[in-house]
Specification:
By secondary structure, the protein is an alpha+beta fold. It has helices spanning about 1-10, 15-50, 50-60, 80-110, and strands spanning about 115-130, 130-140, 145-150, 160-165, 175. Strand 1 and strand 2 form a beta hairpin.
């Protein structure tokens, strides 16, 4: 469901083959969810309809530990699973910290808590990444005086209103037009 919600925003910018390819993972995930639900329901119904003797035999064939399994058990019984769990926790924490400013700014945008300022474009510059280089506009904000970069080329000497992010750190540094649209 999260993928479908995120991908719905991407549809605005995609056309043709790229749009069709971005839809496929959503359908695959939906099919997997439905298949899992159907399998779980069918297994539960079949197990409950089984004879009491069959259920007792099945219960006897399953190995039970004397204590419930605890994720915090040390030393772990399965070191590989334990190490993988720690690595995944560290990775997810790192990702969460990296995108936290963007999430805070998104909530602030929806709540209308971002402040507005005027972007004064001065010279053009170049921004390069793995995808190549593109022209950006350097400038400053009128109220705060902060030097900022607009992510595309805009006419010089024509100030315009922008929304300033609440948390301008990491992925949350993007300015947004005063009418709510992000710079391309």
């Amino acid at each position: 469901m999260v993928y479908v919600a995120v991908d719905a925003h991407v549809f605005d910018n995609l056309t043709g083959t790229s749009e069709l390819l971005s839809v496929n993972p959503g359908f695959v995930l939906l099919a997997l969810v439905l298949t899992g639900l159907i399998v779980a329901i069918v297994d539960t119904v079949r197990l409950r309809r089984a004879d009491a003797a069959v259920r007792a035999t099945a219960r006897a064939n399953v190995s039970h530990y004397p204590l419930p399994v605890h994720a915090s058990r040390y030393p772990p019984r399965h070191a590989g699973s334990w190490v993988f769990g720690i690595v995944m926790l560290a990775a997810m924490t790192t990702i969460a910290v990296a995108i936290l400013p963007e999430q805070v700014n998104s909530v602030a945008y929806l709540a209308g808590a971002e402040s507005q300022d005027t972007f004064n474009p001065l010279p053009y510059g170049r921004a390069c990444s793995k995808g190549g280089c593109h022209t950006v506009t350097e400038g400053y904000l009128s109220k705060s005086g902060a030097d900022v970069t607009w992510d595309c080329q805009v006419p010089l000497g024509q100030p315009f209103t922008v929304r300033v992010p609440v948390w301008a750190w990491g992925t949350g540094r993007n300015l947004i037009y005063g009418d709510g649209t992000r710079s391309p």
